[in-house]
Amino acid sequence: MESEEQRKKDLEELEKYMKTKKFMEETAKAKLHLVYPDEILIEPENK
């Protein structure tokens, strides 16, 4: 029972985080490779 209550609490915290601007920015950068106009993207060379 306690583990399910903790799981519910963790999911509620994750839901709150997923609604933040920080989460949206991180997701856009990681999955869509989007950047702000004034940012410079530096990619490492493939070896």
Brief digest:
Helices cover 62% and strands 0% of the residues.
Please tell me about this protein's structure:
- This protein is mainly α and 47 residues long.
- It is built from 2 helices and no strands.
- The radius of gyration is 17 Å and the shape is elongated.
- The N and C termini lie far apart (51 Å).
CA-atom Rg in angstroms? 17 Å
Q: What is the chain-wise order of helices and strands?
A: HH
Largest sheet: none
Helix-and-strand structural type = mainly alpha
Helix content: 55-70%
Basic shape: elongated
**Average pLDDT:** 92
- The count of β-strands is 0
Query: What is the beta-strand fraction?
Result: under 5%
Distance between the termini: 51 Å
User: Uncertain spans, ≥5 residues at pLDDT below 50?
Assistant: none
* Number of helices in the DSSP assignment: 2
